[in-house]
Each structure stands twice: as C-alpha cells, then as structure tokens.
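Lab notes, practical 5.
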Amino acid sequence: MSQLSNLQMPAPPYIELGRGKSRIQIPILYEDRSVIAIDKPPGWLVAPADWDRTSRNLQRAIEESIVRRSFWVKSRNLKFLRFVHRLDAETTGVLLLVKSRGAVKPYSELFERKRVLKLYLAVVHGLVEEDQWICALPLKEITKPCPRVIVDLKQGKPATTQFHKLAHWTHPGLGPLSLVAAIPETGRTHQIRVHLASSGHPLVGDSLYGGKQTRTLASFGLRSVALKYRDPFTQQMVSITAPVVEFLRQFGLQTIPEMLMDLQVALVKLAPVGKTESRTRPADSMQ
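Output from the prediction step:
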C-alpha cells in the first residue's frame, strides 16, 4: 500500500446538500464531538409540516446526504445529524445540529429549559426611538385565514423578547431603517417577528407581518448571530457566532456598529436588561 493511500483528507468546513445544479455548500461555524453548528441559508425549512412535498427540507436533505455517504459525511464518519431547535425558512444564521441520537435529548432540553442564550440581528422599518425595551405580549398560532401568529392577551402563550437599538440609516428604496438586537427569552413560533411588528417596526422582507420588499432587495431582515450554552456533557461554556458584515451590507448599512465586532462580548453586554413596559400599537393588542 502506498503512502498516499494512507493519507486521510481533512473533513471539509461545510456540509454539502443536493446534487448537480442544486448542490449547495453550507458553512460550518462550529464543531465538536457532539454537535455541528451551520450557517443556515435562506429558503430552507428545518422541519416542514409537509415533509415529503417540500423541496428545500433541510433535515431530509441532510439525511439523504448521510445515506449517500457524501464526502463531508464520510470524512467525519457521521451516521446521524439532527436539529435540536428551529429557525424560520427565511431566517439565516446559527443552527445547531447534534451528531448522535443520544445527544438529542440533552441538547433539546437546553433549549426547552431556556438555558441557551440566543442573539439575533433584526433590520426593521422606521427609526426606533428607544435604546432598549422588552416586549412580553402573549402569542397564539392560528390557521385561518392563513397560518400565522397573533397577539392574544387572553389565550396566548407567554412570550418575552429583549430588544436593543444598535443603528439607524436611510435605504434608498425602503426609507428609514433600524438595526435591532433581539434576545428571545422564550421560543414561540415567529416570536421576534410578531413582537417587532407589534412594536411598530416590522422586519424588512416580512410580508406576513407588515414588512416590505423591493425588486432590488428581496432579503429577509432576521439573522441568528450567536448562541451560548453550557455543554451538557463536558459542562464547558460554548459560544458560537455567525458573520454579520455581508448580512448588514445588503440592507445598505456600511458602518458596522462597534458592539458587533465581537459577538461574544456583545452577548455579555446585551443580555442583562432591566424590565421595561411592553410596547405595542393598540390595534395589535388583541385579535
């Protein structure tokens, strides 16, 4: 056997899904013995309701790649990879996947028990006035006339999100915009989106909750940029961050706020916030 045959190619810093022209490489942001964190691209559903009818089913595409023993899979000797939390289809950024069935419960419980600190960046319409605020409006999922989430003070489930204003500027096609850091304390469906819309500042590109798009800008203004948690096996603190510069520049923000230059520091600075009164427009307070 030649020396070359004994060489092992290093595992690539990405996962690769699909075939041919539909092939896509998704960057890996972090990896250890238990997890892989990827930079989820837009348009992929993590766990769609119509499992077999959706072409961009992220979990199914991962499973198909594992069955094919794609190079990124084989080089890691992976036999299993599964999500333990969710991001909306158009939301990009940090998505955590576990490498074994035995890791599903411990990592899922971190999210269920609110032991994961999550940081999102949101590009919203209008000039946000408050430096920081907390929205604690209860949320309820409805199916008619179309599936969405509403504020319901009587039957809604508790939901809390902390917000911090980071910047504001004017976009030539969309007018005044603001950059907001969002830290959800609960994990309701569409929580950040509905809380921002109820605060009078819907996400850019979020047509379901009042956001706008232009022909030259079809991007969705929400990105998961950081996770922080204690590894349930090693008990070590883990911080995972995603790039932010290109995300912000596509909305016309050229000067990146200094706080975002180090997202791990930003997590520490932004997380502890004193409670303030929830802010909402009267028309959205009850549906």
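Observations recorded by the TA: Confidence is low (pLDDT under 50) at residues 273-287. The helical segments are 3-6, 58-68, 71-74, 101-112, 191-198, 245-249, 263-270.
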